[in-house]
Structures are given as structure tokens and as C-alpha cells.
Design goal:
Oligomer: single chain
Low-confidence stretches: none
Helix content: 10-25%
CATH class: Alpha Beta
Mean pLDDT: 95
Order of helices and strands: EHHHHEEEEEHHHHEEEE
Number of strands: 10
Strand content: 25-35%
Structural class: alpha+beta
Radius of gyration: 18 Å
Distance between the termini: 47 Å
């Protein structure tokens, strides 16, 4: 792979997407979250914004030139950094523009970051997301584009634990999430496809695991009010499998320069770390 061959600045959109109230309820139930604020149409789950942008994201990433990705040995969702500029309300129309924003190279391979900006009908910013696709394998060319905002786990936060939650998943988890999110990637809905890439069986979509974990973030960091969450950032480190519990640990990371409060988090499943370097920023109650 050659990071210099990634066509940074290439754009897609704008794409208009209606935030259907019933789709939002379906998404909440697909991540096992029956928070009344979602079911009554007063709020959306913190990770729902991945849904209206999924097609424009997928279209842009799928068009990466072969010269950039040749030699990749698989890949997946690498990192996600989501900013809420204005709350999504059920029935809103989002207009999303995407661009290939940056490349970060590591021992694992090449992380290609797509920036997705969603505005409302009046052009006001609603959601800003940085969605990375990691491609595993040898890379030349080094980092390209702007440096990404950091969200490394602050080790001193371990001295300030906020709480833990254990969240169950179901055998049909990936199918329910696929229907609600549009992410029907074959490795998430077929044991045979997952086994062909060396996994024992189908595994959760990364955003599915993060969505399930967001129930703990809302409860432990935001006083059960998802409307207070203004940023969610994370690195996907391993796969979680449907039917296995997710163990979410939240720590106080202190105030931010923007007047929010930061909380670090991490998630394990079956004894393995599945979400690392988690950060959620919350507005005052």
C-alpha cells in the first residue's frame, strides 16, 4: 500500500437524508437501548449519526484507487470521532458532504480518515464525523494530510473511576443492527465469510459495539440524558461477537477547554479489549 496514492480532498455529496422517527426507534432497539427519550422522539442515540451518512461514506471509500490499497490483507473500522454541533431531531433532513481527509500509518497498516459534515436545511452545522477505514498490511509514504484530533486514554483518569456497566448482546445482534443501520457487510452476517478471514464466526459491526456501549456512556457520564453528549471518539481494537457481554468502564478525564467535561472509557468482551482510547465529552447538566 502507498499512502501517497490516497486522493486526499476527493469529495462526495452533498447527500440528503431524512432522519425518520421510526428509523431512530429501530436503531435504538438494534443497540438494545429502550431509553424513553429515543422511543418518544425527544432524542437520538449518540451514534445514530452514522446511519444517515453511511452510503456517502461507503461510496467514497470504495472508490480508493488500487495503487493506494494494493497489498492490503483485509481491514475494517479503525477509529471514529463524532462531534455534535446541533442536536438531531426526528424528522430533520441532513445534507452530508464527505471528503478524504487524512491518512495515518501505523504498524498495523494504513488508516484512511473520511470527514463527513452534515448540515440542516438552513445550512447550520449539525454533525461532524471523522470515520477511518484501517487497511492491514505494509505501507509506504507515511502520514498524509492534517493531524487528527487526539483522544488517547489519560492514564491519570484511572484514579478517578466513575462506574462500570455490563451490557448483554444477542445472537441476532448483527442482523438487527444491519437492518437498522444499513451496514450489511458480509463478515457481520455470515459465519462462512468471517471464517474465511480467520475469525471463528460472524462478529459485531464496530459501530454496533460502540452503539451498545453508548448506553453506559449516557447513564454514567451524562445523567441518562443523551442530549448532553457533544463528542464521542474511540479506536476499535478487536472484534466483539454476538451473544457476548460488553463490559464498559468509565473514568473522569476532567474539564475541556471548551467548557465541556471529558470522560475516558474502554470496553472489553470475553476478556479482550474491543474499544480503546474512548473519549466522551458532555455538556453541563
Amino acid at each position: 500500500m502507498d499512502s501517497t496514492k490516497v486522493p486526499l480532498g476527493q469529495q462526495a455529496g452533498p447527500s440528503a437524508n431524512y432522519c425518520d422517527p421510526d428509523e431512530i426507534v429501530a436503531f435504538a432497539l438494534a443497540i438494545n437501548d429502550d431509553n424513553p427519550l429515543y422511543l418518544d422522539g425527544q432524542a437520538v442515540p449518540p451514534t445514530y449519526p452514522v446511519v444517515p451518512v453511511f452510503d456517502v461514506f461507503r461510496g467514497l471509500v470504495s472508490d480508493l484507487p488500487k495503487a493506494a490499497t494494493e497489498g492490503a490483507r483485509g481491514g475494517g473500522h479503525g477509529e471514529h470521532d463524532l462531534y455534535v454541533r446541533k442536536p438531531i431531531t426526528p424528522g430533520m433532513v441532513l445534507h452530508t458532504t464527505a471528503d478524504l481527509y487524512a491518512v495515518e500509518v501505523s504498524k498495523a497498516g494504513m488508516n484512511v480518515f473520511t470527514r463527513l459534515i452534515s448540515v440542516d436545511d438552513d445550512g447550520e452545522p449539525v454533525i461532524e464525523q471523522y470515520w477511518s477505514s484501517i487497511m492491514v498490511g505494509e505501507v509506504t509514504g507515511g502520514n498524509q494530510g492534517p493531524a487528527m484530533p487526539g483522544h488517547l486514554f489519560p492514564e491519570d483518569a484511572r484514579e478517578r473511576p466513575v462506574g462500570k456497566m455490563s451490557l448483554a448482546t444477542t445472537r441476532d445482534q448483527t442482523f438487527r443492527y444491519a437492518g437498522a443501520s444499513g451496514d450489511r457487510s458480509i463478515i457481520h452476517v455470515s459465519d462462512q465469510a468471517a471464517q474465511a478471514m480467520g475469525q471463528p464466526r460472524k462478529f459485531n459491526q464496530g459501530a454496533c459495539s460502540l452503539g451498545i456501549a453508548s448506553r453506559a456512556l449516557v447513564a454514567l457520564a451524562a445523567g441518562d440524558d443523551p442530549r448532553r453528549i457533544k463528542r464521542v471518539a474511540v479506536r476499535f481494537s478487536r472484534y466483539a461477537f454476538p451473544g457476548n457481554d460488553l463490559e464498559v468502564s468509565v473514568f473522569d478525564a476532567g474539564p475541556t477547554p471548551e467548557g465541556l467535561h471529558g470522560y475516558a472509557f474502554e470496553v472489553t468482551s470475553a476478556g479482550q479489549s474491543v474499544l480503546k482510547n474512548g473519549l466522551v465529552e458532555v455538556a453541563p447538566g
